[in-house]
Amino acid sequence: MNEETPRAESAQKFRVEKYGYRNFAVYDGEELVAVTVYKRGAREVARRLNEQARERFVRNVNNSTMLEKSLRLSRCFV
Fold first, then answer.
1. CA distance 44 to 41
2. Nearest 5 degrees, angle CA 31-CA 36-CA 42?
3. pTM for this one?
4. 24 vs 58, which has greater pLDDT?
5. 42 close to 27: Cβ distance less than 8 angstroms
C-alpha cells in the first residue's frame, strides 16, 4: 500500500464508512449519498464523485483565472 494513501483519502470530499451490519455508506460531510453492499463498490462511488468534484473545482478555477485576465486586459484599453 502507498504511504500517501491516508493523506490523499483524508483530503477527499466523499468518504466511505461501515453502515449497519453488512453495508457501506458514502457520505458527503454528514449527508448520506449512497449505500452499497460491497466496500469496493462504495469506494468506486466515492472515487467517481471525488473526481467529478475535482474536475468542477479545476474548471471553476480556470474560468475565474480567465475572467481575471480579461478584466486586467480590459482595464488596459480604457
1. 5
2. 75
3. 0.64
4. 24
5. no
